[in-house]
């Protein structure tokens, strides 16, 4: 039997490599398309508000040490469960462990009828209704608000439009911002180079 030449070895290696890639792709496909083996969003909550596809989740700590509850607004596109991945890896649980009562908006999944729902509807209707509900439940004039991703933009808009209902707070340090968001936005615009309107 003659000794294989380099081309034969290359072809053999390519064939073996192709089989390995096929096998890996098959395994990856099974993992990605198969059932999720990790439980997510396991922190107990109660749905205290529902309108259309929007729900408000309420998480209660074992012992409340902060008088003012926190409303978390997440993005429309991603899921709010990103903040409650699994035990030991949960932002929500972290707040609860520090005695913060948490509310979190679940925007749900949009349907065909939602194609005419605007950002204004989300900010000035859904968010405003939710903020008013929380204020009423707790008998407070203002609540804490935290926005993440697109929810951060919604929270800035809401705070600028309804500063009398919101206390801006950095939960990790307890720093309360005394000036309203309108002032902060105006200062940021003034300091930015370029053209500005006379308003």
From TrEMBL:
Residues 69-166 form the AB hydrolase-1 domain. InterPro entries: AB_hydrolase_1, AB_hydrolase_fold, PHA/PHB_synthase. Keywords: Acyltransferase, Transferase. Its EC number is 2.3.1.-. SUPFAM superfamilies: alpha/beta-Hydrolases. GO terms for molecular function: acyltransferase activity. This is Poly-beta-hydroxybutyrate polymerase. It comes from sediment metagenome.
């Amino acid at each position: 039997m003659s000794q294989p030449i380099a081309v034969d070895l290359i072809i053999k290696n390519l064939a073996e490599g192709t089989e390995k890639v096929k096998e890996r792709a098959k395994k990856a496909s099974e993992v990605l398309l198969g059932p999720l083996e990790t439980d997510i969003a396991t922190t107990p909550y109660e749905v205290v508000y529902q309108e259309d596809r929007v729900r408000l989740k309420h998480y209660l700590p074992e012992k409340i040490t902060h008088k003012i509850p926190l409303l978390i607004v997440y993005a429309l596109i991603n899921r709010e469960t990103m903040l409650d991945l699994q035990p030991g890896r949960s932002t929500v649980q972290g707040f609860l462990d520090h005695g913060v009562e948490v509310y979190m908006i679940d925007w749900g999944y949009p349907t065909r009828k939602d194609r005419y729902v605007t950002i204004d509807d989300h900010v000035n209707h859904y968010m405003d209704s939710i903020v008013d509900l929380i204020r009423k439940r707790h008998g407070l004039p203002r609540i804490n608000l935290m926005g993440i991703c697109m929810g951060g933009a919604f929270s800035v808009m809401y705070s600028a439009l309804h500063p009398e209902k919101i206390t801006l707070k950095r939960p990790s340090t307890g720093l309360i911002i005394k000036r309203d968001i309108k002032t902060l936005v105006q200062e940021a615009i003034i300091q930015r180079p370029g053209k500005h309107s006379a308003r």
